[in-house]
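Q:
My hope is that you can spare some time for a protein that puzzles me. I hope you can help me see how the letters and the C-alpha coordinates relate. Thank you; the sequence and its C-alpha coordinates follow:
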Amino acid sequence: MSAETPAPNRPDDAGDHDDRSHDDRAVARAGMTIGVLSVVAKLTAFVREAAIAAVYGRGPEVDAFFLALAVPVFLLALIAGSFQIALVPAYLARRRAAGEAAADSLFAAAFGRMLLVVAAGSLVMAAAAPAYLPWLAPALAPDTLALTADLLWIMTLFVVVGAAAVAWGGVLNARRRFALPAIAPAFTPLVMAVLLLLARDSLGVAALAWGAVLGTAIEATLVGGALRRLGGRLSPAAGAPDLAPLLRRWGPILLANLLLYGAGVLDQMMAAMLGPGSASAIGYGAKLVLAGLHVATLAIGVAILPAYSDQAASGDLAALRRRLRRHVAAVAALSVPAVAAAAVLAEPVVRLLYQRGAFGADDTALVSDVLVAYAVQLPPYAAAVVLVRAAAVLGLGRALAGAAAANLVLTVALNAGFMAVWGVVGIALATAPAFLATALILYVAVMRAPATRTAG
Protein backbone atom coordinates (compact mmCIF):
# COMPACT_ATOMS: atom_id res chain seq x y z
CA MET A 1 0.00 0.00 0.00
CA SER A 2 1.34 3.43 -0.91
CA ALA A 3 2.18 5.83 1.88
CA GLU A 4 -0.13 8.33 0.17
CA THR A 5 -3.16 6.00 0.26
CA PRO A 6 -5.26 6.24 3.42
CA ALA A 7 -5.39 2.95 5.23
CA PRO A 8 -8.85 1.68 6.07
CA ASN A 9 -9.86 1.40 9.68
CA ARG A 10 -9.03 -2.06 10.89
CA PRO A 11 -9.48 -3.69 14.26
CA ASP A 12 -5.79 -4.53 14.41
CA ASP A 13 -4.52 -0.94 13.96
CA ALA A 14 -3.64 -0.80 17.63
CA GLY A 15 -1.72 -4.02 17.21
CA ASP A 16 0.26 -2.45 14.37
CA HIS A 17 1.12 0.44 16.65
CA ASP A 18 2.28 -2.02 19.29
CA ASP A 19 4.40 -3.80 16.68
CA ARG A 20 6.07 -0.54 15.71
CA SER A 21 6.69 0.29 19.34
CA HIS A 22 8.13 -3.16 19.87
CA ASP A 23 10.36 -2.70 16.83
CA ASP A 24 11.61 0.62 18.20
CA ARG A 25 12.37 -1.09 21.49
CA ALA A 26 14.27 -3.80 19.62
CA VAL A 27 16.26 -1.12 17.80
CA ALA A 28 16.99 0.58 21.13
CA ARG A 29 18.15 -2.69 22.69
CA ALA A 30 20.39 -3.42 19.72
CA GLY A 31 21.75 0.12 19.86
CA MET A 32 22.49 -0.24 23.56
CA THR A 33 24.33 -3.51 23.00
CA ILE A 34 26.41 -2.02 20.19
CA GLY A 35 27.05 1.13 22.20
CA VAL A 36 28.29 -0.65 25.33
CA LEU A 37 30.56 -2.99 23.39
CA SER A 38 31.85 -0.12 21.27
CA VAL A 39 32.77 1.76 24.45
CA VAL A 40 34.89 -1.20 25.48
CA ALA A 41 36.50 -1.32 22.04
CA LYS A 42 37.22 2.41 22.07
CA LEU A 43 38.80 2.27 25.52
CA THR A 44 41.51 0.12 23.99
CA ALA A 45 42.19 2.93 21.50
CA PHE A 46 43.03 5.19 24.46
CA VAL A 47 45.60 2.61 25.55
CA ARG A 48 47.24 2.90 22.14
CA GLU A 49 47.16 6.72 22.19
CA ALA A 50 48.66 6.79 25.68
CA ALA A 51 51.49 4.51 24.56
CA ILE A 52 52.19 6.71 21.53
CA ALA A 53 52.14 9.88 23.64
CA ALA A 54 54.54 8.43 26.21
CA VAL A 55 57.04 7.27 23.59
CA TYR A 56 56.88 10.07 20.99
CA GLY A 57 54.86 13.00 22.37
CA ARG A 58 54.00 15.24 19.38
CA GLY A 59 57.19 14.56 17.46
CA PRO A 60 57.63 14.09 13.70
CA GLU A 61 57.25 10.32 14.00
CA VAL A 62 53.71 10.83 15.32
CA ASP A 63 52.95 13.27 12.51
CA ALA A 64 54.04 10.57 10.06
CA PHE A 65 52.00 7.87 11.76
CA PHE A 66 48.78 9.86 12.06
CA LEU A 67 49.08 10.94 8.44
CA ALA A 68 49.75 7.35 7.37
CA LEU A 69 46.81 6.14 9.44
CA ALA A 70 44.37 8.80 8.25
CA VAL A 71 44.64 7.91 4.56
CA PRO A 72 44.01 4.11 4.81
CA VAL A 73 41.31 4.51 7.48
CA PHE A 74 39.56 6.93 5.18
CA LEU A 75 39.93 4.53 2.24
CA LEU A 76 38.56 1.65 4.31
CA ALA A 77 35.59 3.67 5.55
CA LEU A 78 34.94 5.09 2.11
CA ILE A 79 34.89 1.79 0.19
CA ALA A 80 34.18 -0.99 2.70
CA GLY A 81 32.02 1.14 4.99
CA SER A 82 29.81 2.29 2.13
CA PHE A 83 29.64 -1.31 0.87
CA GLN A 84 28.33 -2.46 4.24
CA ILE A 85 25.59 0.20 4.27
CA ALA A 86 24.55 -0.72 0.73
CA LEU A 87 24.75 -4.45 1.46
CA VAL A 88 22.26 -4.70 4.34
CA PRO A 89 19.08 -3.53 2.51
CA ALA A 90 20.06 -5.42 -0.67
CA TYR A 91 20.84 -8.59 1.30
CA LEU A 92 17.55 -8.41 3.21
CA ALA A 93 15.55 -7.74 0.03
CA ARG A 94 17.12 -10.74 -1.72
CA ARG A 95 16.50 -12.95 1.32
CA ARG A 96 12.82 -11.93 1.42
CA ALA A 97 12.45 -12.64 -2.29
CA ALA A 98 14.49 -15.82 -2.74
CA GLY A 99 15.79 -17.13 0.59
CA GLU A 100 19.02 -17.05 2.55
CA ALA A 101 21.10 -19.03 0.04
CA ALA A 102 20.31 -16.51 -2.70
CA ALA A 103 21.18 -13.64 -0.35
CA ASP A 104 24.52 -15.28 0.48
CA SER A 105 25.24 -15.70 -3.24
CA LEU A 106 24.55 -12.01 -3.75
CA PHE A 107 26.97 -11.16 -0.96
CA ALA A 108 29.72 -13.43 -2.29
CA ALA A 109 29.56 -11.90 -5.76
CA ALA A 110 29.49 -8.33 -4.46
CA PHE A 111 32.20 -9.09 -1.89
CA GLY A 112 34.61 -10.13 -4.64
CA ARG A 113 34.10 -6.87 -6.49
CA MET A 114 34.50 -4.83 -3.34
CA LEU A 115 37.81 -6.56 -2.53
CA LEU A 116 39.12 -5.76 -6.02
CA VAL A 117 38.23 -2.10 -5.57
CA VAL A 118 39.83 -2.01 -2.11
CA ALA A 119 43.02 -3.74 -3.29
CA ALA A 120 43.38 -1.41 -6.26
CA GLY A 121 42.69 1.64 -4.12
CA SER A 122 45.20 0.64 -1.44
CA LEU A 123 47.95 0.04 -4.02
CA VAL A 124 47.32 3.42 -5.62
CA MET A 125 47.32 4.97 -2.13
CA ALA A 126 50.81 3.64 -1.42
CA ALA A 127 52.36 3.95 -4.89
CA ALA A 128 51.21 7.55 -5.39
CA ALA A 129 52.23 8.70 -1.90
CA PRO A 130 55.45 10.49 -3.00
CA ALA A 131 53.33 12.56 -5.39
CA TYR A 132 50.43 13.58 -3.15
CA LEU A 133 51.96 13.72 0.34
CA PRO A 134 54.07 16.87 -0.29
CA TRP A 135 50.95 18.56 -1.62
CA LEU A 136 48.75 17.43 1.27
CA ALA A 137 51.30 18.17 4.02
CA PRO A 138 53.73 20.79 2.65
CA ALA A 139 54.89 21.89 6.12
CA LEU A 140 56.29 18.46 7.03
CA ALA A 141 60.00 17.77 6.55
CA PRO A 142 61.07 15.53 3.63
CA ASP A 143 62.22 12.74 5.96
CA THR A 144 58.83 12.79 7.73
CA LEU A 145 57.05 12.49 4.39
CA ALA A 146 59.36 9.65 3.39
CA LEU A 147 58.55 7.83 6.62
CA THR A 148 54.82 8.35 5.96
CA ALA A 149 55.19 6.85 2.48
CA ASP A 150 56.96 3.79 3.90
CA LEU A 151 54.23 3.29 6.49
CA LEU A 152 51.54 3.47 3.80
CA TRP A 153 52.95 0.38 2.06
CA ILE A 154 52.52 -1.60 5.27
CA MET A 155 49.02 -0.20 5.72
CA THR A 156 47.84 -1.60 2.38
CA LEU A 157 47.51 -4.95 4.16
CA PHE A 158 45.49 -3.28 6.91
CA VAL A 159 43.02 -1.92 4.35
CA VAL A 160 42.44 -5.24 2.55
CA VAL A 161 42.09 -7.35 5.70
CA GLY A 162 39.94 -4.69 7.35
CA ALA A 163 37.63 -4.60 4.32
CA ALA A 164 36.95 -8.32 4.70
CA ALA A 165 36.13 -7.85 8.39
CA VAL A 166 33.74 -4.97 7.61
CA ALA A 167 31.96 -6.94 4.87
CA TRP A 168 31.51 -10.06 7.00
CA GLY A 169 30.31 -7.87 9.86
CA GLY A 170 27.69 -6.41 7.52
CA VAL A 171 26.20 -9.86 6.92
CA LEU A 172 26.15 -10.51 10.67
CA ASN A 173 24.34 -7.19 11.18
CA ALA A 174 21.81 -8.10 8.48
CA ARG A 175 21.18 -11.30 10.43
CA ARG A 176 20.66 -9.22 13.61
CA ARG A 177 23.98 -10.39 15.11
CA PHE A 178 25.40 -7.10 16.38
CA ALA A 179 27.63 -7.91 19.35
CA LEU A 180 30.75 -9.44 17.82
CA PRO A 181 31.22 -6.88 15.02
CA ALA A 182 30.99 -4.17 17.70
CA ILE A 183 33.59 -5.63 20.09
CA ALA A 184 36.05 -7.23 17.64
CA PRO A 185 37.78 -3.92 16.72
CA ALA A 186 39.12 -3.76 20.29
CA PHE A 187 42.00 -6.03 19.33
CA THR A 188 43.62 -3.73 16.78
CA PRO A 189 44.63 -0.79 19.04
CA LEU A 190 45.69 -3.21 21.80
CA VAL A 191 48.00 -5.11 19.48
CA MET A 192 49.37 -1.81 18.14
CA ALA A 193 50.20 -0.58 21.65
CA VAL A 194 51.81 -3.87 22.70
CA LEU A 195 53.90 -4.13 19.55
CA LEU A 196 55.06 -0.50 19.91
CA LEU A 197 56.25 -1.10 23.47
CA LEU A 198 57.92 -4.42 22.60
CA ALA A 199 59.44 -3.62 19.21
CA ARG A 200 60.01 0.13 19.13
CA ASP A 201 63.81 -0.30 19.23
CA SER A 202 63.84 -2.62 16.21
CA LEU A 203 60.84 -1.34 14.21
CA GLY A 204 60.41 2.24 15.38
CA VAL A 205 57.05 3.81 14.57
CA ALA A 206 56.53 1.07 11.95
CA ALA A 207 55.59 -1.16 14.90
CA LEU A 208 52.27 0.69 14.97
CA ALA A 209 51.60 -0.06 11.32
CA TRP A 210 52.44 -3.76 11.67
CA GLY A 211 50.32 -3.85 14.83
CA ALA A 212 47.38 -2.48 12.84
CA VAL A 213 47.78 -5.29 10.30
CA LEU A 214 48.05 -8.02 12.94
CA GLY A 215 45.19 -6.67 15.06
CA THR A 216 42.88 -6.36 12.08
CA ALA A 217 43.71 -9.93 11.07
CA ILE A 218 42.56 -11.08 14.52
CA GLU A 219 39.36 -9.05 14.14
CA ALA A 220 38.67 -10.56 10.70
CA THR A 221 39.28 -14.07 12.04
CA LEU A 222 36.76 -13.61 14.83
CA VAL A 223 34.04 -12.03 12.68
CA GLY A 224 34.57 -14.45 9.80
CA GLY A 225 34.50 -17.43 12.15
CA ALA A 226 31.17 -16.30 13.59
CA LEU A 227 29.67 -15.92 10.13
CA ARG A 228 30.93 -19.36 9.11
CA ARG A 229 29.32 -20.93 12.20
CA LEU A 230 26.00 -19.44 11.09
CA GLY A 231 26.41 -21.07 7.68
CA GLY A 232 27.34 -17.88 5.85
CA ARG A 233 29.79 -17.57 2.98
CA LEU A 234 33.22 -16.05 3.52
CA SER A 235 34.88 -16.32 0.13
CA PRO A 236 34.14 -14.12 -2.88
CA ALA A 237 32.42 -15.64 -5.91
CA ALA A 238 33.15 -15.19 -9.59
CA GLY A 239 29.54 -15.77 -10.62
CA ALA A 240 27.38 -12.66 -10.53
CA PRO A 241 23.68 -12.77 -9.66
CA ASP A 242 21.75 -9.57 -10.23
CA LEU A 243 23.91 -7.00 -8.47
CA ALA A 244 22.12 -3.96 -9.87
CA PRO A 245 20.09 -3.09 -6.72
CA LEU A 246 23.20 -3.23 -4.56
CA LEU A 247 25.45 -1.37 -7.00
CA ARG A 248 22.85 1.38 -7.49
CA ARG A 249 23.13 2.10 -3.78
CA TRP A 250 26.84 1.57 -3.36
CA GLY A 251 28.02 4.43 -5.59
CA PRO A 252 25.95 7.19 -3.97
CA ILE A 253 26.64 5.87 -0.47
CA LEU A 254 30.35 5.85 -1.26
CA LEU A 255 30.01 9.55 -2.02
CA ALA A 256 28.02 10.02 1.18
CA ASN A 257 30.85 8.47 3.18
CA LEU A 258 32.97 11.31 1.89
CA LEU A 259 30.57 13.42 3.99
CA LEU A 260 31.14 11.38 7.14
CA TYR A 261 34.85 10.60 6.83
CA GLY A 262 36.37 12.94 4.28
CA ALA A 263 36.25 15.89 6.66
CA GLY A 264 38.58 14.14 9.08
CA VAL A 265 41.19 13.50 6.41
CA LEU A 266 40.95 17.10 5.21
CA ASP A 267 41.39 18.31 8.79
CA GLN A 268 44.52 16.18 9.18
CA MET A 269 45.98 17.38 5.88
CA MET A 270 45.20 21.06 6.42
CA ALA A 271 46.58 20.91 9.95
CA ALA A 272 49.87 19.68 8.51
CA MET A 273 50.09 23.01 6.62
CA LEU A 274 50.40 24.83 9.96
CA GLY A 275 53.76 23.26 10.79
CA PRO A 276 55.23 20.39 12.82
CA GLY A 277 53.09 19.17 15.69
CA SER A 278 49.80 20.52 14.35
CA ALA A 279 48.75 17.25 12.69
CA SER A 280 49.56 15.46 15.94
CA ALA A 281 47.39 17.90 17.92
CA ILE A 282 44.49 17.21 15.57
CA GLY A 283 45.17 13.49 15.81
CA TYR A 284 45.16 13.35 19.61
CA GLY A 285 42.18 15.68 20.05
CA ALA A 286 40.10 14.15 17.29
CA LYS A 287 40.65 10.61 18.53
CA LEU A 288 38.91 11.36 21.82
CA VAL A 289 35.91 13.00 20.16
CA LEU A 290 35.71 10.47 17.34
CA ALA A 291 35.63 7.70 19.94
CA GLY A 292 32.41 9.16 21.31
CA LEU A 293 31.08 9.79 17.81
CA HIS A 294 31.82 6.23 16.82
CA VAL A 295 30.16 4.71 19.86
CA ALA A 296 26.96 6.76 19.67
CA THR A 297 26.49 6.90 15.93
CA LEU A 298 27.66 3.36 15.18
CA ALA A 299 25.23 2.07 17.78
CA ILE A 300 22.20 3.76 16.28
CA GLY A 301 23.40 3.56 12.66
CA VAL A 302 23.94 -0.19 12.67
CA ALA A 303 20.78 -0.90 14.65
CA ILE A 304 18.42 1.17 12.51
CA LEU A 305 19.59 0.04 9.07
CA PRO A 306 17.79 -3.36 9.01
CA ALA A 307 14.67 -1.78 10.57
CA TYR A 308 14.59 1.04 8.00
CA SER A 309 15.12 -1.49 5.21
CA ASP A 310 12.16 -3.60 6.32
CA GLN A 311 9.91 -0.57 6.74
CA ALA A 312 10.82 0.89 3.34
CA ALA A 313 10.18 -2.50 1.72
CA SER A 314 6.66 -2.49 3.18
CA GLY A 315 5.95 0.81 1.38
CA ASP A 316 5.04 2.66 4.60
CA LEU A 317 7.16 5.72 3.91
CA ALA A 318 5.14 7.95 6.23
CA ALA A 319 5.88 5.65 9.17
CA LEU A 320 9.56 5.55 8.24
CA ARG A 321 9.67 9.36 8.26
CA ARG A 322 8.01 9.50 11.67
CA ARG A 323 10.53 7.04 13.02
CA LEU A 324 13.37 8.97 11.40
CA ARG A 325 12.27 12.22 13.05
CA ARG A 326 12.22 10.48 16.44
CA HIS A 327 15.68 9.03 15.89
CA VAL A 328 17.20 12.30 14.67
CA ALA A 329 15.75 14.18 17.62
CA ALA A 330 16.95 11.52 20.05
CA VAL A 331 20.55 11.32 18.84
CA ALA A 332 20.86 15.11 18.59
CA ALA A 333 19.43 15.61 22.10
CA LEU A 334 21.63 12.93 23.61
CA SER A 335 24.69 14.57 22.03
CA VAL A 336 24.18 17.95 23.73
CA PRO A 337 25.17 16.76 27.24
CA ALA A 338 28.24 15.15 25.67
CA VAL A 339 29.32 18.55 24.32
CA ALA A 340 28.95 20.08 27.77
CA ALA A 341 30.88 17.21 29.35
CA ALA A 342 33.70 17.64 26.84
CA ALA A 343 34.00 21.32 27.73
CA VAL A 344 34.32 20.52 31.42
CA LEU A 345 36.43 17.37 31.26
CA ALA A 346 38.70 17.96 28.28
CA GLU A 347 41.80 19.18 30.09
CA PRO A 348 41.79 16.66 32.97
CA VAL A 349 41.10 13.80 30.58
CA VAL A 350 43.89 14.80 28.20
CA ARG A 351 46.26 15.26 31.15
CA LEU A 352 45.36 11.85 32.54
CA LEU A 353 45.67 10.01 29.24
CA TYR A 354 48.63 11.71 27.59
CA GLN A 355 50.69 13.99 29.83
CA ARG A 356 53.74 11.89 30.52
CA GLY A 357 57.10 11.32 28.92
CA ALA A 358 57.52 13.53 25.85
CA PHE A 359 53.97 14.96 26.13
CA GLY A 360 54.09 18.14 28.23
CA ALA A 361 51.70 20.67 29.78
CA ASP A 362 51.67 22.91 26.70
CA ASP A 363 50.67 19.91 24.61
CA THR A 364 47.83 19.19 27.05
CA ALA A 365 46.49 22.74 26.76
CA LEU A 366 46.48 22.70 22.95
CA VAL A 367 44.98 19.22 22.58
CA SER A 368 42.27 20.08 25.14
CA ASP A 369 41.23 23.11 23.09
CA VAL A 370 41.12 20.96 19.95
CA LEU A 371 38.99 18.37 21.73
CA VAL A 372 36.41 20.92 22.89
CA ALA A 373 36.21 22.48 19.43
CA TYR A 374 35.66 19.07 17.83
CA ALA A 375 32.98 18.15 20.37
CA VAL A 376 30.71 20.93 19.10
CA GLN A 377 30.02 18.85 15.98
CA LEU A 378 28.42 15.98 17.94
CA PRO A 379 24.69 16.83 17.45
CA PRO A 380 24.79 17.53 13.69
CA TYR A 381 27.17 14.63 13.03
CA ALA A 382 24.93 12.17 14.89
CA ALA A 383 21.91 13.42 12.93
CA ALA A 384 23.82 13.04 9.66
CA VAL A 385 24.67 9.40 10.41
CA VAL A 386 20.98 8.55 10.84
CA LEU A 387 19.97 10.55 7.77
CA VAL A 388 22.58 8.85 5.58
CA ARG A 389 21.10 5.45 6.49
CA ALA A 390 17.57 6.60 5.68
CA ALA A 391 18.65 8.15 2.38
CA ALA A 392 20.55 4.97 1.48
CA VAL A 393 17.51 2.78 2.13
CA LEU A 394 15.33 5.07 0.03
CA GLY A 395 17.82 5.13 -2.83
CA LEU A 396 18.34 8.90 -2.73
CA GLY A 397 21.60 8.82 -4.63
CA ARG A 398 21.52 12.41 -5.85
CA ALA A 399 20.84 13.76 -2.38
CA LEU A 400 23.70 11.72 -0.92
CA ALA A 401 26.09 12.93 -3.59
CA GLY A 402 24.95 16.53 -3.17
CA ALA A 403 25.35 16.38 0.61
CA ALA A 404 28.84 14.90 0.25
CA ALA A 405 29.89 17.61 -2.18
CA ALA A 406 28.47 20.36 0.05
CA ASN A 407 30.28 18.97 3.07
CA LEU A 408 33.64 18.82 1.33
CA VAL A 409 33.32 22.35 -0.06
CA LEU A 410 32.23 23.74 3.30
CA THR A 411 34.98 21.86 5.15
CA VAL A 412 37.72 23.29 2.95
CA ALA A 413 36.31 26.81 3.00
CA LEU A 414 35.58 26.91 6.73
CA ASN A 415 38.89 25.25 7.64
CA ALA A 416 40.78 27.85 5.62
CA GLY A 417 38.89 30.73 7.21
CA PHE A 418 38.89 29.44 10.78
CA MET A 419 42.54 28.29 10.82
CA ALA A 420 43.60 31.78 9.74
CA VAL A 421 42.05 33.12 12.95
CA TRP A 422 42.37 30.30 15.50
CA GLY A 423 45.04 28.02 14.05
CA VAL A 424 44.65 24.30 14.54
CA VAL A 425 41.73 24.85 16.95
CA GLY A 426 39.86 26.61 14.14
CA ILE A 427 40.12 23.51 11.97
CA ALA A 428 38.38 21.50 14.67
CA LEU A 429 35.74 24.17 15.20
CA ALA A 430 34.85 24.31 11.49
CA THR A 431 33.38 20.79 11.50
CA ALA A 432 30.17 21.78 13.32
CA PRO A 433 28.70 24.24 10.77
CA ALA A 434 29.74 21.97 7.89
CA PHE A 435 27.87 18.98 9.32
CA LEU A 436 24.86 21.08 10.31
CA ALA A 437 24.43 22.29 6.73
CA THR A 438 24.76 18.83 5.20
CA ALA A 439 22.43 17.23 7.76
CA LEU A 440 19.78 19.77 6.77
CA ILE A 441 20.28 18.92 3.08
CA LEU A 442 19.72 15.22 3.78
CA TYR A 443 16.73 15.85 6.05
CA VAL A 444 14.93 17.88 3.39
CA ALA A 445 15.68 15.23 0.76
CA VAL A 446 14.31 12.37 2.88
CA MET A 447 11.18 14.30 3.84
CA ARG A 448 10.49 15.10 0.18
CA ALA A 449 11.28 11.63 -1.20
CA PRO A 450 8.54 10.28 -3.52
CA ALA A 451 6.26 7.73 -1.92
CA THR A 452 7.06 5.22 -4.66
CA ARG A 453 10.64 4.80 -3.47
CA THR A 454 11.28 1.60 -1.55
CA ALA A 455 14.22 -0.54 -0.50
CA GLY A 456 13.70 -2.91 -3.39
